[in-house]
Amino acid sequence: MEKALGNQIRTIRRQHDLSVADLASAAGISNGMLSKIENGGISPSLSTLQSISGVLQVPLSSLFASFEERQDCSYVPAGQGLTIDRRGTKVGHVYQLLGHVLRGDVAVEPYLITLRENAAAHTSFRHSGVEFIYMLKGQVHYRHGTEVYHLTSGDALLFDSSAPHGPESLTDEETSYLSVIIYPRSEG
């Protein structure tokens, strides 16, 4: 966080065409301290940050903008998705959550779904938002509302997920697909 904060202060200082000495003097701190702050070497006090933001004529929160912008990143190494117990788990569907975002008005839930060889059909899923499916392996007849789509490797399906949906008929082979559910966070 200190590095992101320092980079943001440096960026705003340069936008105002101020030298390190100019900003440090006006903020009542030493050149060395400002240099350490900009290089992420120290964690400045709140009063120091208030002085800096006052001189730069920006809200204190804007000094943290670049840190906040980078916060919502979710990295999941191959095979390390969190296995989630959801409706459908009981009938041989395995859900691995591949990431999540913590902020914002929109929730995004990417899942790797594996339908085991003994998986049963389950076409009564319903939830708010939209869902995107991308077939990775195998094949499935996937129902959305009154329509049934035969999906094979490489096929994609995007739909309103408030209609009943789910795998209707499966083959004997294991099937996997990427499912991304997107919905307004207030409804989540």
TrEMBL record:
Domain HTH cro/C1-type: 9-63
Keyword list, A-Z: DNA-binding
SUPFAM superfamilies according to UniProt: lambda repressor-like DNA-binding domains, RmlC-like cupins
Keyword DNA-binding: yes
Name of this chain's protein: Helix-turn-helix domain-containing protein
Organism: Sphingomonas oligophenolica
